[in-house]
């Protein structure tokens, strides 16, 4: 409630109203309909407005270029790269299927050294089901 009253008092101040009126005043359309568009082109002929129009046209052309690149170049490139990756994946596993199975890695004494147990158990069987179906047994 206090914040609302403070806001209402502040907006009644003439300096605040003038700031808002200046802030929201539009160069495109004035209150009486006379503005940059309402005149017979004299206001549109200055350097600032012509530069803004050129920047706007350039932005429209550039965004159209990037939209076309995204649709007509990037999407087909992703599809081609995906097809190539799938082909290489299948070729790799076809090659691997003809090789003999890998031999088991030896267990060295310096591997899996445990100085203390993990909070869920000894840490050697974490998350694996044992013979009786229990976890870590």
UniProtKB/TrEMBL annotation:
Q: Gene3D superfamilies given for it?
A: Cytochrome c oxidase, subunit VIa
Matches recorded under Pfam families: COX6A
Q: Which GO terms describe its molecular function?
A: enzyme regulator activity
Tell me where it mainly resides. mitochondrion
Keyword Membrane carried by entry: yes
Which superkingdom does the taxonomy of this entry point to? Eukaryota
Q: Name one GO cellular component term.
A: mitochondrial inner membrane
UniProt subcellular location: Mitochondrion inner membrane
Q: Report what the protein is called.
A: Mitochondrial cytochrome c oxidase subunit VIa
């Amino acid at each position: 409630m206090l914040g609302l009253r403070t806001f209402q008092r502040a907006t009644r101040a003439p300096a605040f109203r003038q700031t808002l009126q200046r802030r929201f005043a539009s160069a495109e359309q004035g209150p009486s309909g006379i503005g940059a568009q309402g005149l017979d082109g004299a206001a549109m002929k200055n350097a600032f407005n012509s530069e803004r129009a050129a920047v706007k046209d350039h932005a429209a052309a550039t965004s159209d270029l990037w939209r076309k690149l995204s649709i007509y170049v990037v999407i087909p490139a992703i599809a081609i790269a995906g097809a190539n990756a799938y082909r290489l994946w299948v070729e790799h596993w076809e090659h691997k299927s003809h090789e003999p199975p890998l031999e088991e890695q030896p267990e060295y004494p310096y591997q899996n050294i445990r100085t203390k147990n993990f909070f869920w158990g000894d840490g050697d069987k974490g998350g694996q089901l044992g013979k009786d179906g229990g976890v870590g047994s």
